[in-house]
Amino acid sequence: MASAEQIKALLESHVSGDDSRFFSIALQVAAHEAKIGHGKLAQELRDLVIKSKKNRSVEVTSGLPTPISKAYKDISGLLQAAHPNQRLADLVVDDKLAGRLDRIVREQKQFSRLRNHGLQARHKLLLVGPSGTGKTLTASVLAGELGLPLFTVRLDAIITKFMGETAAKLRQVFDAIADVRGVYFFDEFDAIGSQRSFANDVGEVRRILNSFLQMLEQDHSNSLIIAATNHPDILDNALFRRFDDIIRYQLPESPAIVALLKGRLSPHAPKGFRWSKAVTGAEGLSGAEITRAANEAIKEMLIEHKDHITMADILCALEERREFSQQNQ
Question: What's the pTM?
Answer without folding.
Answer: 0.69
